[in-house]
Design brief:
Chain lengths: 221, 368
């Protein structure tokens, strides 16, 4: 029981089945996986191995076809659409490969966007912590890729989530910027206890994490 | 920064920013609404102004009451030149002590040079007076038959000398206007209507006159106003309906543009949902964007319409009497047009917003 409470995410025989024409594709084929509170995990595997789907299901962006996902011990299939949104807003922070910042908003406005009651000081603090002093009012198009990804990490952190999900966070960055981003994530994990899961192709990025999970054809190997 | 600290940076501020993001597109979409609203307000405004003008001029021209043959419909909308008061009724009316300052008016059609022309006999001096003396005035159609000022013209075997011409078209009809004293004998002394002042309350005298003389209808000034309102409200509705088509076209272009916007922003909508916005919040932000297009377009259209109407007043005001912009732009028109343009735009945004709110997050995020 105690062990269960220590899991942020529990995948219990989770299947995700897509139909492509007449063919059935098992993006996830009966996944059993526990993500412990405070862990730093990377998921690796070739394209189409189901690693992004695993991340989407784990982040309640997608629902499993079969099986159960528990988040902090709660069965996510019982959540309404609105409750799912509230969960994503407060408990989960997403970091995307292509940053996905709103182009019409400044860095600061992007960070404030997920907050219901905007806390300007906190957003500024987070941006400064990401090394973006003096760039609060720049638009994403005025920032480098590494800077944009740091803004998006600040956006992911603004509501103090217990879990950060990052889909190829270094995929669009050069080695130097990739190391900076992974360093930031590592620091968040070690010093602030944030649980982090990344999906990556990049072995250098995976080296920053504590545990590496390999996937193939919807299974963990 | 000031803006940020005072305002909530929520999804709704995205709607404003999204409008500014594609300025040309937003402006062109608004232009559709602007044109519709301008057309609607100018046309309805002119009709409203015309109604007020007609009421004023009709009630100024007549005395306290106007008396017509009751079988001819007995109102200003009845077919002109088809219904007359009998000489007996006229005699009876002229002998009534309650009525004074009786003036006869007559309008009828007659054969002239193988065509039908309209003869108007009036006591309204402003229509027939040239240099202070009443005369005979013809419309351009008769002028085109070769008649000029100073020429003789023969109507119903009577010869008249033309003293004036209309400056404007008389709707392409052959019209001849002269003093009703001269026109009445041409119509067997049967007038179309009498106008008179009353000794006492016109409403009371109306009853007395109608009870005394058979086959007549008496209209007071308020009856006439009401008739004009009835007649013009139909016209206002018709013209408003036509102008509304322009507004509808503008609103339909909002549906189109919002669909393009939503498709273009598929990934952004996916991101919004991923970071915790509900489908309803996404729906609301798209609807707000559509509403803003309608409202801003409506305000701009109203301003342009007011300017155009003011120009019309300055150009033609002297001809149609003392008319003010406020008579053409009543509050119901302003409120109705702004509310209507906004509400229609929200309706136009419904389908695109619904589509955006239903987007599958994972697929939206994958969108290039």
């Amino acid at each position: 029981m105690n062990d269960q409470n220590n899991n942020v995410l529990e995948f219990k025989d989770v299947w995700k089945i897509y139909r492509m024409g007449d063919e059935k594709i098992n993006a996830l084929a009966g996944i059993n996986l526990n993500i412990k509170n405070g862990s730093f995990t990377s998921i690796m595997g070739p394209s189409g191995s189901g690693k992004s789907t695993l991340l989407h299901v784990g982040g309640i962006l997608d629902m499993p076809t079969k099986g159960t996902l528990l988040m902090n011990g709660k069965d996510t299939s019982t959540l309404s659409g609105k409750e799912q949104a509230t969960f994503r807003r407060n408990k989960i922070g997403f970091v995307f490969q292509r940053f996905n910042l709103m182009p019409q908003l400044s860095a600061l406005e992007n960070v404030l966007l997920p907050m219901i009651k905007p806390d300007l000081e906190k957003a500024k603090e987070l941006l400064d912590k990401m090394g973006l002093e003096g760039k609060h009012n720049k638009r994403p198009s005025q920032l480098s890729g590494g800077e944009q990804q740091r803004v998006s990490i600040a956006r992911a952190l603004i509501n103090n989530p217990s879990l950060i999900l990052a889909d190829e966070p270094t995929g669009e960055l050069d080695t130097k910027n990739a190391e900076v981003i992974m360093g930031i994530l590592q620091d968040l994990n070690k010093n602030e206890g944030v649980t982090i899961i990344i999906v990556t192709h990049n072995p250098l990025a995976a080296e920053f994490t504590d545990e590496i999970i390999e996937m193939r054809d919807g299974n963990i190997i | 920064m000031e803006f940020l600290s005072r305002r909530k940076i929520g999804i709704n501020s995205l709607s404003f920013k999204n409008l500014r993001r594609r300025k040309l597109r937003s402006i062109l979409t608004m232009l559709g609404v602007v044109i519709g609203v301008t057309a609607l307000v100018v046309l309805v405004g002119l009709t409203t102004g015309m109604t007020n003008y007609m009421k004023e001029s009709t009630t100024n021209m007549m005395g306290d009451v106007m008396i017509m043959n009751s079988t001819g419909g007995g109102n200003i909308m009845s077919q002109p030149g088809s219904s007359f008061l009998s000489p007996e009724a006229v005699n009876e009316l002229k002998n009534m002590s309650q009525l004074y300052n009786i003036k006869e008016e007559v309008q009828f059609f007659t054969e002239f040079n193988g065509t039908s022309i309209y003869i108007v006999g009036t006591k309204d001096r402003s229509q027939i007076e040239i240099n202070g003396t009443p005369g005979v005035v013809i419309s351009p159609v008769i002028e085109a038959m070769g008649y000029q000022i100073g020429n003789k013209i023969t109507i119903e075997d009577q010869e008249f000398t033309i003293t004036g011409t209309f400056s404007e078209g008389a709707m392409g009809m052959g019209v001849l206007v002269l003093d009703s004293d001269k026109a009445l004998p041409l119509n067997d002394n049967k007038p179309t209507s009498l106008t008179a002042n009353t000794r006492g309350d016109p409403e009371v005298i109306k009853e007395e006159v109608e009870n005394t003389v058979d086959g007549i209808t008496v209209s007071t000034k308020s009856d006439m106003s009401k008739q004009i309102d009835d007649m013009m409200s139909g016209l206002t509705l018709f013209i408003g309906g036509i102008a509304s088509i322009a507004l509808m076209v503008g609103v339909i272009s909002i549906i189109n543009i919002m669909l393009v916007n939503v498709t273009e922003r598929t990934r952004e909508i996916g991101v919004l949902k991923a970071i915790g916005f509900t489908s309803r919040e996404v729906l609301g932000s798209i609807l707000l964007e559509a509403a803003l297009i309608g409202f801003i377009g409506g305000v701009v259209g109203l301003i342009i319409a007011a300017i155009l109407l003011q120009i019309a007043i300055m150009l033609f005001g002297s001809q149609i009497g003392d008319i003010q912009l406020v008579q053409m732009l009543p509050v119901w028109l302003i409120a109705g047009v702004l509310g209507g343009a906004t509400a229609l735009s929200v309706l136009a945004g419904l389908y695109p917003a619904w589509r955006a709110s239903r987007l599958n997050v994972v697929e939206a995020l994958r969108n290039e």
